[in-house]
User: Which sequence fits this backbone?
């Protein structure tokens, strides 16, 4: 079961030349939970803890450009969009049985805090992932 928390994301630190935003502590995202980081309408990230593995993908489903991935069903490291059932591999972002793709983002854990790569502003992340 997914329980979702939502918070506003912001660029907080630079790691290896890239900007990362503080998501939450490891304790605040136990296995089976998800969290959404909102930067703006086109830049939202869905962060998942799948059996201790952290995955960050765009929250916007490319099927109908809907910001709902964070509410998806998780099974075997895939997320299924709650609107029409498109399923995506959380490791690669690729749709199962289709050409669509969720953009993936790097996740780091530093001293018990989860940091997520900040999406660039050059183009919508949902579009870039296709
Ligand atoms: S909006 Fe995600 S499958 Fe339709």
Assistant:
């Amino acid at each position: 079961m997914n329980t979702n928390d939502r918070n506003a994301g912001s660029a907080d630190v630079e790691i290896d030349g890239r900007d990362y935003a503080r998501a939450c502590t490891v304790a605040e995202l136990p296995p089976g939970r998800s969290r959404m980081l909102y930067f703006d309408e086109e830049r939202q990230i869905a962060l998942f803890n799948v059996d201790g593995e952290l995955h960050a993908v765009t929250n916007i489903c490319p099927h109908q450009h809907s910001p709902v991935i964070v509410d998806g069903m998780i099974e075997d490291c895939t997320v299924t969009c709650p609107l029409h059932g498109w399923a995506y591999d959380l490791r690669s972002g690729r749709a199962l049985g289709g050409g669509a793709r969720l953009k993936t983002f790097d996740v780091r854990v530093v001293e018990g805090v989860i940091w997520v790569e900040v999406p660039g502003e050059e183009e919508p992340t949902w579009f870039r992932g296709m």
Summary: Helices lie at 125-128. The chain has a mean pLDDT of 88.
